Amino acid sequence: MENEEPSNRKFMFWLMWGMFVMSVFIYGIVVYTLGNSEVQGQVVDLVILNNTFYVLSILAAVISVFVVDRFFKIKLNMQKQSETLNEGKILQLYYPYFLVKIMFAEAIASFGFCLAIIGAEKMHIYLPFGVFSLLILLVNIPKLDNLVN
């Protein structure tokens, strides 16, 4: 990523973000397909696991939206003090932080996916997690022009 043009780097951010958004929908399709299949497994009591995943989802959302940005701003200010930064360098610094942000958003959908696989009412379990994950991904949409300015 070091020798790429800034426009290529911006495209890479959008590509990664789009892939994570698509995976949320793919999880939903898998859960929908499993929920409509003829063979239904035994009903598993998921109250404790469900509540744990809800709490972890909220924690992942807070980290994704607020904490990661705070760490990036600290890192960016440290870099600005020691050297002048061009657009390419700023995008290079932001890359790992952006990955962490969308990975936490993706984890929310994964929590719902896991619960839906072992639960009885598959779409009813997955839907809140999938929608919440998409909302967090929308909040974390690549705003790369704001970084440089």
How are the SSEs placed, and which strands pair?
Blueprint: H1 6-35, H2 47-82, H3 87-118, H4 122-139, H5 144-148
Helical amount = over 70%
SSE string, helices as H and strands as E? HHHHH
Mean pLDDT: 83
Number of domains: 1
Provide the β-strand percentage band.
under 5%
The general outline is elongated
Number of helical runs? 5
**Structural class designation:** mainly alpha
| Spatial separation of the terminal alpha carbons | 21 Å
Strand element count: 0
Give the radius of gyration.
Answer: 19 Å
Unreliable parts = none
Write up what this structure looks like.
- The protein has helices at 6-35, 47-82, 87-118, 122-139, 144-148.
- By secondary structure, it is mainly α.
- Helix 3 (87-118) packs antiparallel against helix 4 (122-139).
- It starts with 5 loop residues before the first helix and ends with a helix.
- The mean pLDDT is 83.
